[in-house]
């Protein structure tokens, strides 16, 4: 059996292959990294619309009388205060305050739907079920029962509304969700979030319908410039938009406070204790480093692991980097010691003993007003 055959596949795997996508191993999944030039795909999403296969991500449903209370013992955001029908960014942290994942919490009337990163699916599920013990609730893994597709770009409303009934997709506010009939499939969850900095939606439906929904979206979206988009462009898009990626800006060794993710952490007294709270409070009071953006016009693109210097002093290291077609230069994120984060500060990144000048830049590198 080949290595490719041992990788997990989404319900759309064969569709990607038929479209000529270049496939790679992404966290144990055989996923499309690109269908064409990555920078062209980035530009397509920024100027028109892109279609993403997110079937590799985890989808869990915490149900039962204690569902919300249980989630509030493991999630950093205040689940009980999320309005019904709304979504919030949150994290699952260890006792030391470092996250095992960053997630989205969908607040239902008494239950919580949670979307997690593909590479952390098994660990997150085990984590949730372990901490659900003693609570009157159940953690249901719906990852194999629900597929997930994202539509991202300025034309996303015009495209999705053509195949949706019973729901005004344009009326769904940013970080809200609703239900509708999509391609004749009733009860489809439709959320308006996204990981690109653009307007857009995620839709959830049975995997038996995946090819039909995907192909229909490409069909009705063609006049609006819709194209399938791979993981390579998605990484550049999220970096331009200043969104963290687990394994880069945050991981088991990087806490969310120093990563600038305080909007996903609640320190309100009424939330009560949760895993990692004490450590996060200590880090907030005494941070040692901070996450910054950098730009560099040199030939070499910033990459994870490159060291940063200010004069002869090593002050930090890069965690992400890419060429940005949207702003026309190289961009990256890095951790630096406090005192080196002021926008405009001149630094140098070290690439195998050679230095390249870079500047501390404001984040996000790109933003667009969303509804």
Give a description of the structure.
- The protein is of the alpha+beta class and 371 residues long.
- It folds into three domains: 3-54 and 145-240, Gyrase A, domain 2 (2-Layer Sandwich); 58-140, Aminomethyltransferase beta-barrel domains (Alpha-Beta Plaits); 288-361, Elongation Factor Tu (Ef-tu), domain 3 (Beta Barrel).
- It is 20% helix and 33% strand.
- The chain has nine helices and 20 strands.
- It has helices spanning 3-6, 13-18, 38-47, 67-74, 121-132, 156-160, 210-221, 231-240, 277-285; strands spanning 22-26, 29-34, 49-53, 58-63, 87-93, 99-107, 112-116, 138-141, 147-152, 164-165, 177-182, 185-191, 200-205, 226-228, 289-296, 307-310, 313-324, 329-337, 346-351, 354-361.
- It has a seven-stranded mixed beta sheet with strand order 10-11-12-13-9-3-14, sandwiched between helices.
- β6 and β7 form a beta hairpin.
- α3 (38-47) crosses α8 (231-240).
- The longest helix has 12 residues, at 121-132.
- The N and C termini lie far apart (48 Å).
């Amino acid at each position: 059996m080949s290595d490719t055959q041992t990788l997990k596949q989404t319900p759309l795997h064969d569709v990607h292959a038929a479209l000529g996508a270049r496939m790679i191993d992404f966290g144990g999944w055989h996923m499309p990294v690109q269908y064409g030039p990555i920078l062209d795909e980035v530009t397509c999403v920024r100027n028109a619309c892109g279609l993403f296969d997110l079937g590799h991500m985890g989808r869990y449903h915490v149900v039962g009388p204690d569902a919300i209370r249980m989630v509030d013992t493991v999630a950093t955001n205040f689940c009980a205060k999320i309005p019904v029908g709304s979504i919030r960014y949150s994290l699952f942290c260890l006792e030391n305050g470092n996250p095992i994942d960053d997630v989205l919490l969908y607040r239902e009337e008494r239950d919580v739907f949670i979307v997690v990163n593909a590479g952390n699916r098994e660990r997150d599920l085990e984590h949730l079920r372990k901490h659900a013990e003693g609570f009157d609730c159940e953690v249901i893994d719906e990852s194999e029962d629900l597929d997930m597709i994202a539509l991202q770009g300025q034309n996303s409303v015009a495209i999705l509304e053509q195949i949706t009934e019973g729901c005004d997709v344009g009326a769904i506010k940013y970080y809200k969700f609703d239900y509708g009939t999509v391609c004749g499939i009733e009860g489809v969850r439709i959320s308006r979030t996204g990981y690109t900095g653009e307007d857009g939606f995620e839709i959830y439906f049975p995997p038996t319908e995946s090819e039909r929904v995907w192909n229909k979206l490409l069909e009705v979206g063609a006049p609006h410039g819709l194209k399938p988009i791979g993981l390579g462009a998605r990484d550049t898009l999220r970096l331009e938009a200043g969104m963290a990626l687990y394994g880069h800006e945050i991981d088991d060794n990087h806490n969310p406070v120093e990563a600038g993710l305080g909007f996903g952490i609640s320190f309100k007294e009424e939330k009560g204790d949760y895993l990692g709270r004490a450590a996060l409070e200590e880090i907030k009071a005494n941070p040692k480093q901070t996450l910054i953006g950098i730009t560099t016009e040199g030939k070499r693109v910033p990459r994870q692991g490159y060291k940063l210097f200010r004069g002869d002093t090593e002050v930090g290291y890069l965690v992400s980097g890419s060429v940005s077609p949207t702003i026309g230069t190289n961009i990256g994120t890095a951790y630096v010691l406090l005192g080196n984060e002021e926008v405009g500060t001149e630094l140098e990144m070290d690439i195998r003993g050679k230095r390249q000048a870079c500047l501390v830049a404001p984040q996000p590198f790109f933003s667009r007003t969303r509804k």
